[in-house]
Protein backbone atom coordinates (compact mmCIF):
# COMPACT_ATOMS: atom_id res chain seq x y z
CA UNK A 1 0.00 0.00 0.00
CA UNK A 2 1.40 3.40 -0.94
CA UNK A 3 2.26 5.78 1.82
CA UNK A 4 0.61 9.16 1.66
CA UNK A 5 1.88 12.39 3.15
CA UNK A 6 0.01 15.65 3.65
CA UNK A 7 1.26 16.79 0.25
CA UNK A 8 0.32 13.56 -1.56
CA UNK A 9 2.25 10.38 -2.37
CA UNK A 10 5.98 10.35 -1.74
CA UNK A 11 7.67 11.04 -5.04
CA UNK A 12 9.64 7.75 -5.05
CA UNK A 13 6.49 5.66 -4.71
CA UNK A 14 4.69 7.90 -7.17
CA UNK A 15 7.44 7.46 -9.72
CA UNK A 16 7.42 3.67 -9.38
CA UNK A 17 3.66 3.41 -9.91
CA UNK A 18 3.29 5.33 -13.16
CA UNK A 19 3.72 4.08 -16.71
CA UNK A 20 6.64 4.71 -19.03
CA UNK A 21 4.99 7.67 -20.75
CA UNK A 22 4.08 9.27 -17.45
CA UNK A 23 7.64 8.70 -16.23
CA UNK A 24 8.98 10.57 -19.24
CA UNK A 25 6.54 13.43 -18.66
CA UNK A 26 7.48 13.54 -14.98
CA UNK A 27 11.20 13.64 -15.80
CA UNK A 28 10.58 16.37 -18.40
CA UNK A 29 8.69 18.44 -15.85
CA UNK A 30 11.49 18.06 -13.32
CA UNK A 31 14.02 19.16 -15.95
CA UNK A 32 11.97 22.22 -16.88
CA UNK A 33 11.69 23.54 -13.32
CA UNK A 34 14.61 25.94 -12.92
CA UNK A 35 15.75 28.13 -10.06
CA UNK A 36 15.99 31.47 -11.89
CA UNK A 37 14.25 32.71 -15.01
CA UNK A 38 15.44 35.97 -16.58
CA UNK A 39 13.08 38.29 -18.46
CA UNK A 40 14.65 40.74 -20.94
CA UNK A 41 12.89 43.08 -23.38
CA UNK A 42 14.57 44.50 -26.51
CA UNK A 43 13.56 46.71 -29.43
CA UNK A 44 15.59 48.32 -32.25
CA UNK A 45 18.76 48.64 -30.22
CA UNK A 46 20.96 49.86 -33.06
CA UNK A 47 18.89 53.02 -33.63
CA UNK A 48 20.96 54.63 -30.85
CA UNK A 49 24.69 53.72 -30.88
CA UNK A 50 25.00 54.32 -27.14
CA UNK A 51 22.06 52.05 -26.41
CA UNK A 52 23.52 49.39 -28.69
CA UNK A 53 26.84 49.38 -26.85
CA UNK A 54 25.12 49.41 -23.46
CA UNK A 55 22.90 46.45 -24.40
CA UNK A 56 25.84 44.34 -25.51
CA UNK A 57 27.60 45.09 -22.22
CA UNK A 58 24.40 44.38 -20.26
CA UNK A 59 24.05 40.91 -21.79
CA UNK A 60 27.75 40.07 -21.55
CA UNK A 61 27.99 41.19 -17.92
CA UNK A 62 24.78 39.37 -16.98
CA UNK A 63 26.06 36.07 -18.38
CA UNK A 64 29.37 36.63 -16.60
CA UNK A 65 27.76 37.40 -13.24
CA UNK A 66 26.83 35.11 -10.35
CA UNK A 67 23.69 34.18 -12.27
CA UNK A 68 25.88 31.24 -13.29
CA UNK A 69 25.66 29.86 -9.73
CA UNK A 70 22.05 28.86 -10.42
CA UNK A 71 20.09 26.77 -12.86
CA UNK A 72 18.83 29.58 -15.10
CA UNK A 73 17.05 30.30 -18.37
CA UNK A 74 16.77 33.60 -20.23
CA UNK A 75 13.77 34.62 -22.34
CA UNK A 76 14.28 37.65 -24.57
CA UNK A 77 11.09 39.22 -25.91
CA UNK A 78 11.96 41.29 -28.96
CA UNK A 79 9.38 44.04 -29.26
CA UNK A 80 9.00 44.17 -33.03
CA UNK A 81 12.56 45.14 -33.97
CA UNK A 82 13.05 46.18 -37.57
CA UNK A 83 16.80 46.89 -37.49
CA UNK A 84 18.89 43.96 -38.82
CA UNK A 85 21.61 44.49 -36.18
CA UNK A 86 19.26 43.72 -33.29
CA UNK A 87 17.87 40.63 -35.01
CA UNK A 88 21.36 39.34 -35.85
CA UNK A 89 22.66 39.90 -32.31
CA UNK A 90 19.75 38.03 -30.73
CA UNK A 91 20.02 35.18 -33.24
CA UNK A 92 23.70 34.78 -32.41
CA UNK A 93 22.96 34.88 -28.68
CA UNK A 94 20.30 32.17 -29.00
CA UNK A 95 22.59 29.99 -31.12
CA UNK A 96 25.56 30.36 -28.77
CA UNK A 97 23.72 29.74 -25.47
CA UNK A 98 21.21 26.89 -25.25
CA UNK A 99 19.63 28.39 -22.14
CA UNK A 100 18.47 31.47 -24.08
CA UNK A 101 15.25 31.66 -26.08
CA UNK A 102 14.07 34.63 -28.14
CA UNK A 103 10.39 35.40 -28.69
CA UNK A 104 9.87 37.54 -31.79
CA UNK A 105 6.93 39.95 -31.80
CA UNK A 106 5.60 41.46 -35.02
CA UNK A 107 4.78 44.78 -33.36
CA UNK A 108 5.88 46.86 -30.39
CA UNK A 109 3.72 45.77 -27.46
CA UNK A 110 5.03 48.47 -25.14
CA UNK A 111 7.07 47.91 -22.01
CA UNK A 112 4.42 46.47 -19.68
CA UNK A 113 2.80 44.15 -22.23
CA UNK A 114 6.15 43.02 -23.61
CA UNK A 115 7.43 42.09 -20.19
CA UNK A 116 4.15 40.36 -19.35
CA UNK A 117 4.80 38.19 -22.40
CA UNK A 118 8.24 37.31 -21.02
CA UNK A 119 6.81 36.30 -17.64
CA UNK A 120 4.18 34.11 -19.28
CA UNK A 121 6.73 32.31 -21.46
CA UNK A 122 9.12 31.76 -18.56
CA UNK A 123 6.35 30.15 -16.54
CA UNK A 124 5.11 28.06 -19.46
CA UNK A 125 8.53 26.83 -20.54
CA UNK A 126 10.60 26.65 -17.36
CA UNK A 127 8.46 27.21 -14.22
CA UNK A 128 11.17 29.19 -12.35
CA UNK A 129 11.12 29.71 -8.61
CA UNK A 130 12.41 33.26 -9.06
CA UNK A 131 12.13 35.61 -12.03
CA UNK A 132 14.73 38.33 -12.57
CA UNK A 133 13.59 41.28 -14.66
CA UNK A 134 16.65 42.89 -16.21
CA UNK A 135 16.87 45.86 -18.57
CA UNK A 136 19.19 46.69 -21.43
CA UNK A 137 20.70 49.57 -19.45
CA UNK A 138 22.20 47.50 -16.60
CA UNK A 139 25.83 46.49 -16.07
CA UNK A 140 26.42 43.64 -13.63
CA UNK A 141 29.51 42.92 -11.53
CA UNK A 142 31.42 39.78 -12.43
CA UNK A 143 30.94 36.56 -10.48
CA UNK A 144 34.45 37.05 -9.10
CA UNK A 145 37.62 39.03 -9.57
CA UNK A 146 41.25 38.58 -8.51
CA UNK A 147 40.30 39.19 -4.87
CA UNK A 148 37.59 36.54 -4.70
CA UNK A 149 33.83 36.15 -5.19
CA UNK A 150 31.71 39.14 -6.18
CA UNK A 151 28.28 39.07 -7.75
CA UNK A 152 24.94 40.76 -7.16
CA UNK A 153 22.29 38.03 -7.30
CA UNK A 154 23.40 35.68 -4.53
CA UNK A 155 22.94 38.17 -1.64
CA UNK A 156 19.37 38.80 -2.81
CA UNK A 157 18.36 35.16 -3.21
CA UNK A 158 20.09 34.21 0.05
CA UNK A 159 17.96 36.79 1.86
CA UNK A 160 14.74 35.77 0.13
CA UNK A 161 15.35 32.14 1.15
CA UNK A 162 16.13 33.10 4.76
CA UNK A 163 13.20 33.08 7.24
CA UNK A 164 13.54 36.87 7.53
CA UNK A 165 12.87 37.15 3.80
CA UNK A 166 9.98 34.73 3.61
CA UNK A 167 7.53 37.53 2.72
CA UNK A 168 9.84 39.28 0.25
CA UNK A 169 8.03 39.41 -3.09
CA UNK A 170 10.45 41.72 -4.91
CA UNK A 171 14.03 42.56 -4.03
CA UNK A 172 16.39 44.74 -6.03
CA UNK A 173 19.99 45.94 -5.59
CA UNK A 174 21.42 49.34 -4.85
CA UNK A 175 22.19 51.14 -8.11
CA UNK A 176 25.30 53.01 -9.16
CA UNK A 177 24.66 55.77 -11.67
CA UNK A 178 26.83 58.31 -13.40
CA UNK A 179 24.47 61.23 -12.94
CA UNK A 180 21.49 58.97 -13.53
CA UNK A 181 17.98 59.14 -12.16
CA UNK A 182 18.73 61.39 -9.20
CA UNK A 183 21.73 63.20 -10.72
CA UNK A 184 24.10 62.93 -7.80
CA UNK A 185 26.33 66.01 -7.47
CA UNK A 186 29.54 63.97 -7.56
CA UNK A 187 28.81 60.81 -9.58
CA UNK A 188 31.01 57.81 -8.90
CA UNK A 189 31.20 57.06 -12.63
CA UNK A 190 31.01 59.35 -15.66
CA UNK A 191 27.51 59.58 -17.06
CA UNK A 192 27.45 57.84 -20.43
CA UNK A 193 26.22 60.26 -23.09
CA UNK A 194 27.91 58.89 -26.24
CA UNK A 195 29.16 55.57 -27.50
CA UNK A 196 32.84 56.56 -27.27
CA UNK A 197 32.66 56.34 -23.48
CA UNK A 198 31.46 52.74 -23.71
CA UNK A 199 34.20 51.54 -26.04
CA UNK A 200 36.51 50.38 -23.26
CA UNK A 201 34.15 47.80 -21.79
CA UNK A 202 36.92 46.09 -19.81
CA UNK A 203 37.81 49.28 -17.94
CA UNK A 204 34.16 50.04 -17.27
CA UNK A 205 33.59 46.49 -15.99
CA UNK A 206 36.61 46.74 -13.69
CA UNK A 207 35.16 49.89 -12.12
CA UNK A 208 31.81 48.17 -11.58
CA UNK A 209 33.61 45.26 -9.91
CA UNK A 210 35.49 47.64 -7.63
CA UNK A 211 32.28 49.34 -6.53
CA UNK A 212 30.54 46.01 -6.00
CA UNK A 213 33.35 44.80 -3.73
CA UNK A 214 33.01 47.90 -1.56
CA UNK A 215 29.24 47.52 -1.47
CA UNK A 216 29.35 43.86 -0.39
CA UNK A 217 30.12 45.05 3.14
CA UNK A 218 26.64 46.51 3.47
CA UNK A 219 23.92 44.21 4.79
CA UNK A 220 21.03 46.65 5.11
CA UNK A 221 17.66 45.75 3.70
CA UNK A 222 15.09 48.53 3.34
CA UNK A 223 11.73 49.06 1.62
CA UNK A 224 12.02 50.30 -1.95
CA UNK A 225 11.83 49.35 -5.60
CA UNK A 226 14.75 49.09 -8.00
CA UNK A 227 15.60 47.12 -11.12
CA UNK A 228 16.93 44.56 -11.88
CA UNK A 229 14.19 43.10 -9.70
CA UNK A 230 14.20 39.55 -8.35
CA UNK A 231 10.59 38.37 -7.98
CA UNK A 232 9.24 35.34 -6.15
CA UNK A 233 6.97 33.46 -8.54
CA UNK A 234 4.68 32.30 -5.72
CA UNK A 235 3.97 35.96 -4.92
CA UNK A 236 3.29 36.73 -8.59
CA UNK A 237 0.77 33.89 -8.64
CA UNK A 238 -1.03 35.48 -5.70
CA UNK A 239 -1.28 39.12 -6.82
CA UNK A 240 -1.01 38.89 -10.61
CA UNK A 241 -3.97 39.88 -12.76
CA UNK A 242 -5.59 36.83 -14.36
CA UNK A 243 -7.41 37.15 -17.64
CA UNK A 244 -8.28 34.60 -20.34
CA UNK A 245 -6.29 31.95 -18.50
CA UNK A 246 -3.09 34.05 -18.47
CA UNK A 247 -1.24 35.72 -15.60
CA UNK A 248 -0.33 39.39 -16.02
CA UNK A 249 2.17 40.68 -13.43
CA UNK A 250 1.76 44.17 -14.93
CA UNK A 251 -1.68 45.69 -15.40
CA UNK A 252 -2.52 45.21 -19.11
CA UNK A 253 -5.09 48.04 -19.02
CA UNK A 254 -2.60 50.84 -18.42
CA UNK A 255 -3.13 53.49 -21.12
CA UNK A 256 0.54 54.39 -21.59
CA UNK A 257 3.27 52.08 -22.86
CA UNK A 258 5.70 52.95 -20.06
CA UNK A 259 6.02 54.20 -16.47
CA UNK A 260 4.30 53.17 -13.24
CA UNK A 261 3.69 49.58 -14.33
CA UNK A 262 6.24 48.31 -11.79
CA UNK A 263 5.07 50.71 -9.05
CA UNK A 264 1.45 49.61 -9.49
CA UNK A 265 2.54 45.97 -9.26
CA UNK A 266 4.52 46.75 -6.10
CA UNK A 267 1.44 48.35 -4.57
CA UNK A 268 -0.57 45.17 -5.18
CA UNK A 269 2.16 43.21 -3.38
CA UNK A 270 2.00 45.70 -0.53
CA UNK A 271 -1.78 45.31 -0.27
CA UNK A 272 -1.36 41.53 -0.03
CA UNK A 273 1.17 41.91 2.85
CA UNK A 274 4.20 41.06 0.72
CA UNK A 275 7.40 43.10 1.07
CA UNK A 276 9.08 45.14 -1.67
CA UNK A 277 12.73 45.57 -0.70
CA UNK A 278 16.19 46.81 -1.63
CA UNK A 279 19.33 44.89 -0.60
CA UNK A 280 22.12 47.41 -0.08
CA UNK A 281 24.75 44.65 -0.12
CA UNK A 282 24.10 44.13 -3.83
CA UNK A 283 25.12 46.64 -6.50
CA UNK A 284 24.35 47.03 -10.22
CA UNK A 285 25.17 49.93 -12.55
CA UNK A 286 22.23 51.63 -14.28
CA UNK A 287 22.39 53.75 -17.45
CA UNK A 288 19.00 55.18 -16.54
CA UNK A 289 18.57 57.82 -19.22
CA UNK A 290 19.72 55.59 -22.06
CA UNK A 291 16.39 53.80 -22.38
CA UNK A 292 13.44 54.98 -20.33
CA UNK A 293 13.74 58.71 -20.95
CA UNK A 294 14.78 58.23 -24.56
CA UNK A 295 11.51 56.55 -25.52
CA UNK A 296 8.91 58.43 -27.51
CA UNK A 297 5.88 59.86 -25.69
CA UNK A 298 7.61 59.50 -22.33
CA UNK A 299 5.97 62.54 -20.64
CA UNK A 300 2.51 61.67 -21.96
CA UNK A 301 2.78 58.02 -20.88
CA UNK A 302 4.04 59.09 -17.47
CA UNK A 303 1.07 61.38 -16.86
CA UNK A 304 -1.51 58.94 -18.26
CA UNK A 305 -0.34 55.99 -16.17
CA UNK A 306 0.06 58.11 -13.05
CA UNK A 307 -3.55 59.29 -13.31
CA UNK A 308 -4.72 55.73 -14.07
CA UNK A 309 -3.03 54.33 -10.93
CA UNK A 310 -4.44 57.06 -8.69
CA UNK A 311 -7.96 56.53 -10.02
CA UNK A 312 -7.63 52.76 -9.65
CA UNK A 313 -6.17 52.67 -6.13
CA UNK A 314 -7.05 56.03 -4.61
CA UNK A 315 -4.94 58.23 -2.30
CA UNK A 316 -3.40 55.15 -0.65
CA UNK A 317 -1.36 54.61 -3.81
CA UNK A 318 0.19 58.09 -3.55
CA UNK A 319 1.00 57.48 0.11
CA UNK A 320 2.66 54.19 -0.75
CA UNK A 321 4.80 55.77 -3.46
CA UNK A 322 5.93 58.74 -1.37
CA UNK A 323 6.55 56.89 1.91
CA UNK A 324 7.08 53.15 1.54
CA UNK A 325 8.78 53.26 -1.87
CA UNK A 326 10.12 56.79 -2.21
CA UNK A 327 11.70 57.05 1.23
CA UNK A 328 14.68 54.84 0.40
CA UNK A 329 14.78 55.19 -3.37
CA UNK A 330 17.26 58.05 -3.58
CA UNK A 331 19.59 56.33 -1.15
CA UNK A 332 19.56 53.27 -3.38
CA UNK A 333 21.00 55.28 -6.28
CA UNK A 334 24.68 55.95 -5.71
Return the CATH class. Alpha Beta
Number of strands: 15
Instruction: Examine the coordinates and then state which fold CATH places here, giving the name of the CATH topology.
Output: Spore Coat Polysaccharide Biosynthesis Protein SpsA, Chain A
Q: How many separate structural domains?
A: 1
Q: What is the overall number of helices? A: 12
Report the β-strand fraction as a percent range. Answer: 15-25%
Helix content: 40-55%
Content-based structural category: alpha/beta
Average the pLDDT over all residues and give the rounded result.
81
Q: For the record, what is the CATH homologous superfamily label?
A: Spore Coat Polysaccharide Biosynthesis Protein SpsA, Chain A
Q: What is the CATH architecture annotation?
A: Alpha-Beta Complex
**What is the helix/strand order?**
EEHHEHEHEHEEEEHEHEEHEEHEHHH
Q: Radius of gyration over alpha carbons?
A: 20 Å
N→C terminal distance: 61 Å
The 3D shape can be described as globular
Major β-sheet profile: 9 strands, mixed
- Low-pLDDT runs of 5+ residues are 1-19, 180-188, 190-196
Q: What would you note in describing this structure?
A:
By secondary structure, the chain is an alpha/beta fold. The protein has one domain (20-332): Alpha-Beta Complex (Spore Coat Polysaccharide Biosynthesis Protein SpsA, Chain A), CATH 3.90.550. Helices cover 43% and strands 20% of the residues. The chain has twelve helices and 15 strands. The protein has helices at 11-16, 20-32, 49-63, 84-96, 111-126, 153-160, 201-215, 233-239, 261-271, 288-291, 298-313, 315-332; strands at residues 4-5, 8-9, 36-42, 72-78, 100-104, 130-134, 138-139, 144-145, 148-149, 168-176, 221-223, 229-232, 241-243, 246-248, 275-286. Strands 3, 4, 5, 6, 7, 10, 11, 12 and 15 form a nine-stranded mixed β-sheet that branches. Strands 1-2 form a two-stranded antiparallel sheet. Strand 8 and strand 9 (148-149) form a beta hairpin. The radius of gyration is 20 Å and the shape is globular.
Amino acid sequence: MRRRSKRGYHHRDQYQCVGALEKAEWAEKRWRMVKVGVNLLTCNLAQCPTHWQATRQAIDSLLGSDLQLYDWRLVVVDNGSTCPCTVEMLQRLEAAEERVRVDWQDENLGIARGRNRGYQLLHEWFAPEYVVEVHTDHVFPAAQDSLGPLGWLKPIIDFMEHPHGARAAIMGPALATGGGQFRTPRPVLPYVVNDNQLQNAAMFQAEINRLARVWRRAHRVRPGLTHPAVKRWAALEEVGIRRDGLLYPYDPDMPGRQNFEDTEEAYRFHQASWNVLIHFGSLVYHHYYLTRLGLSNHPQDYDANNVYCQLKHGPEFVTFVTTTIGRWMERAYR
